[in-house]
Amino acid sequence: MATFAMSLLFLFSLLPPILGSSAPVQDPEVVVQEVHRSINASRRNLGYFSCGTGNPIDDCWRCDANWDKNRQRLADCAIGFGKDAMGGKNGRIYVVTDSEDDDPVNPRPGTLRHAVIQDEPLWIIFKRDMVIKLKQELVMNSFKTIDGRGASVHIAGRAMHYHPLRQ
């Protein structure tokens, strides 16, 4: 479950600014090498300076017992192609309290659909474990981070799409 939540988080927080970026990576191989170095360093430090996960991203935030008080610190943990992505960093926290997806045109506040269509940066978290069954595809605006840490969240039924807003 934690792996799914982390995958979901990085999928939607790290890709948007990259896709809309006007400055492509000069040498993608250098980025890949940096990721491998970071992973190897994290594994070498198991039992010494890490929290014991062997994953540099997890080690970056899991060592802090109060991680839930500063969720956006995770954005500083990114490595690889997403390391400069903004996602919902510095945006307000939006708490999904309602797992329903009844009205795709006028979604209720508290739903995931309502969160992702907002025009402001948002760090989206979940109040509790939930299964969200999408009735229609979910189209996300730019600068959103979907952070499933601390809850078991499953999104099913339809596709999720990212549509960057050009600035």
TrEMBL record:
InterPro entries the record matches: AmbAllergen, Pectin_lyas_fold, Pectin_lyase_fold/virulence, PEL
Domain of life: Eukaryota
Keyword RNA-binding: no
Keywords linked to the UniProt accession: Lyase, Signal
Signal peptide: 1-20
UniProt xrefs under SUPFAM superfamilies: Pectin lyase-like
GO molecular function: pectate lyase activity
Family to which this protein belongs: Belongs to the polysaccharide lyase 1 family.
Protein name: Putative pectate lyase 5
Phylogenetic classification of the source organism: Eukaryota, Viridiplantae, Streptophyta, Embryophyta, Tracheophyta
Gene name of the record: VvCHDp001217_1
